[in-house]
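Why show two proteins at once? Because comparison is the fastest way to build intuition. When a single record is shown, students tend to memorize it. When two are placed side by side, the eye starts asking what differs. So, the first record is below.
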Amino acid sequence: MNILKAIKSLSKFEICLWSSSVLIILASFFLSHGSDYISLTASLIGVTSLIFLARGFAFGQILMIIFSTIYGVISFRFQYYGEMLTYLGMTLPMSVISLVSWLRHPFKKSAEVEVSSKLGGKKIAFLIVSSIIVTAIFYFILKALGTANLIPSTVSVLTSYIAAALTAFRNPYFALGYATNDIVLVVLWILATLTDISYLPMTVCFIVFFVNDMYGFICWKKMAKRQKG
């Protein structure tokens, strides 16, 4: 995994997308008179990870591991226990698994991961059954913890799990899964922002994430087609 090579390989459009994403997040932070630099740091790390994930570079998984850790702390502070448990107990370990999977399956010894477009019957069955089980377990845990906005938090668990599993499978639809999760998170953080304006940057963060995840989905579909030759 050559990090410097991965950075140099970014296109002008990707650099512009990343730069504009960073500027939007910074602008929302300072316009809202933000003082929560932990949230700002998490947002910047998260949006940076998405650019590398869109290109299929394992370095993006390392950044996602860091983001998941910080985001879990932020969620705990706002009593979004669903988000905390999802990212610390699921997204973070799944990112570690995905990192190993991506490093073990490079495309022709390049920095780019080999795309696996077809899931197969067993993986689809596993995804459906495990998604139901994980969501049900988390629902009752979150309910017992008195989680704020229980239903959106539970939906976030479901979408996060599916996206994380597809990431480990190296399937292009993982980005679409995360884009769906971004929509749920935008709703959650809008509700938080209505209580405390300092959380506006997190709302903007996930709007920016949505744009980047959609770009990632487009990239992976192109990667899959190109790798097939």
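Second record. Ask yourself what differs from the first in the token line.
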Amino acid sequence: MTKETFLWKEKISKLLISFSIPCVISFIVNALYNIVDQIFIGRGIWYLANGATNIVFPLTMICLWFWCLFWDWSASWLSLKLWEKRKDEAAKWVATGIFMSVITSLIFCWITLTFLPQLLNLFGCTDALREYATTYGWIIMLGIPFFMIWITLNSIIRADGNPKFAMLSMIIWAVINTLLDPLFIFVLDLGIAWAAYATIISQFITFSLNTWYITRLNSISLTRNIFTFDLHYIGKIAGLGVSSLINQISIVAVIAVSNNLLAKYWSLSKYWPDIPITVLGIVMKLAMILNSIILWISVWSQPIVGYNYWAKLYHRVRETLNLVLIVCSIVWITAFILFQTIPGLIIWIFGAWDALYIEFAILAFKIYLFFCFCYWIQIPAWIFFQSIWKSRISVLLSLSRQIIILIPAFFILWHIFGIMWILYAGAVADFVSVLLALGFLMKENKSLCKKHNKEEDIKEKSLKSTNISKELYEIVAERSLISN
């Protein structure tokens, strides 16, 4: 069965599993390392150290901007050029992605190390968090080149036809980091600096492993002379990554705004700013892990939706969308139940230091994530519209929660109702964005139904026409035989 036949004949559930599972596992592992750090730092050092990791976190998210903008899409170009049987050009795309990852990572490393105090202030660092954030941030930024080059190579290895090796390298990274964290924090009592070193060591090992593989690619050969600065290739790679870049920017913008509001105005509350910054950072990271599951299930439904849409198999398009929504609803509704029923137990995993800390954590989970189950509609919706080339709707929906609704809601609710209402901004953004997504989906569903019915009418008329033609042919043939 060819790839094209596979996409329009194979059972939708089997297609979705085969496309999404490996990448979902890889992305979960990628997201989990931040949570692992939070757990060991929170339980082994102090909640202020945990808050410091939340201040540094946007810097690692900025690294992923560049990954989305350049390097993941160089892997997409590799797949395309291999399909076109143009191996030399495929090698050039890969070399451009690797070259840009090396150059950009070194520049970003220099910028962050030079201006680290200013960047920490930009992301809402308080005086109580500064020492921890500076120590942790300085070491993490030293390892940025290993991290950025490693994830670039990981995407290319996956596109080279070896997703198992790509997944294995991510698992090795997570396992090493998970083993070193408790060793350095609990056994050797080395503090937050060595929690950061644990991350760098695991990144370097995985970087070395992927570098070894990249010299033995199955599909192409990389030679020294193709690693050049070529604006033509760079521009095309960057053009494909813009939508993902916008999504990453919106996440960092939300973290920066919320941290600064918490740092500036929560000093007037009994919680002070450090508890809210720490707790809300944990809440957001947990939400991001669950979103990553939904995002990658949705992303890997794209080729199924796209191919069947252009093949005018609209019933399969609707079936794929419905299955994605069902799977995503199970993930987020389960999470919603846990967040509303056992928030105290969840925050205990990250360290429960005093009564105020636990009190605020329970409020954050119950209020900020009250409508979190809406994610099961919002994220698949904008990925779906991207799949059928309705980019304006896709961009609107992808920006709706973070940029269009959430950030204004922070300021509006705080000014009208007071500082505690910053927590309600998350629930408001979730509810409004899902209404917007639901409206577009219902309209598109009606359109798909009409198109499906129209195609069925055409097929039915064509079949009737064929049957009539056969009957006429048989009558003519019969009369011809009689006349003879």
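One difference worth noting in the second protein: The chain has 19 helices and no strands.
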